[in-house]
Amino acid sequence: MAPPIMVTMAAGREGEWRIDTLRTITGEPLLAAARLAVLPGRHPSTDGAVWSLLGSTGAPRYTTQSEQAALVAVQPELGRAQATSGAMIALRKNDAWWSLAADQRRKIFEEDARHIAMSMRFLPAIARRLYHARELGQPFDFLTYFEFAPEHAAAFDELLAQLRASVEWRYVEREVELRLSR
Amino acid sequence: MAPPIMVTMAAGREGEWRIDTLRTITGEPLLAAARLAVLPGRHPSTDGAVWSLLGSTGAPRYTTQSEQAALVAVQPELGRAQATSGAMIALRKNDAWWSLAADQRRKIFEEDARHIAMSMRFLPAIARRLYHARELGQPFDFLTYFEFAPEHAAAFDELLAQLRASVEWRYVEREVELRLSR
């Protein structure tokens, strides 16, 4: 387990990713911008940024030993040359979710929503990284980040559709989706 | 579930708590200081601080619904008038701990160490709050904060002794204990 990796997602005129679409699924929108910079570490004020969000990786909250072993066996690294498409989806869950105990959240996450088992079907096509943001005092709880080859865009759409139809997603009160290319 | 509460623990010449002892249990020490200020929010540079640590409350990682209900029934609030003794114990766990999956950490935390069940015996005498710090990029993973009446100091010592003898504590690689009074 590597130490936590902090990230600043800054939307503006600069950055490695072009923002192809910015779509508000639920709740308050984010402002439109041309590009997204994914910067290692904390960058409190980025010149010319329309908005910027901070996140940090951390120990998985719900993944069991057998699930973790299965994931490690198939999940790809970020930064693959063919992965010129991407997505950043910022999420916030509601008070009802955060009032649940750990075992209740785990049950919804995996037994009801099949979050891990269902996502596994899309590996190794889709590389992903989860950043936690709630305890950093951010306006979102999670920044979810994905990289894939353009030919896997339909599979990615299917993954999103399945997650959004799940019990877990009833607890999502804010969701903004950026589709990216580089 | 309230939103996360951020805290800055700043040691120096000011603050509501007098630092009676500062004892390094494991790993690198912290510098001695006269007083500890427990400040709401993030205070990046506190005048005259010898050191300062940032933490945030967050959803409990391992507590089940029945454990949470039992805790809510007996755990006291912070800030009781008679609670003029306190403690702040900063902890960091090692890579072996953070490499474990969520169910493995849960098993050690409660089935092996009986962290919740054993701590319950000391409620409502001892009020406490756990701040997470690892994902904030801090030098400790947790800032644990306690308040109790002076006559419960021996019970608090017993609680610490039991936790430190547990399987969970084999994963602690840095621990510094401040005993406080106000």
Key terms:
eight-stranded antiparallel beta sheet, 34% strand, alpha+beta, homodimer, 182 residues, 5 helices
Task: Describe the secondary structure blueprint for this structure.
The structure is a homodimer of 182-residue chains.
Chain A: E1 6-12, E2 17-26, E3 35-40, E4 51-56, H1 65-74, E5 85-93, H2 95-98, H3 102-112, H4 115-120, E6 127-132, E7 142-148, H5 153-164, E8 172-181
Antiparallel strand pairs in A: 1-3, 1-4, 2-3, 2-8, 5-7, 5-8, 6-7
Task: Describe the overall structure.
2 copies of one chain form a homodimer. Chain A is an alpha+beta fold. Chain A is 24% helix and 34% strand. An 8-stranded antiparallel β-sheet of chain A has the order 4-1-3-2-8-5-7-6. The longest helix of chain A is centred in the last third of the chain and has 12 residues. Chain A is globular. Chains A and B meet through helix 1 and helix 3 of A and helix 1, helix 2 and helix 3 of B.
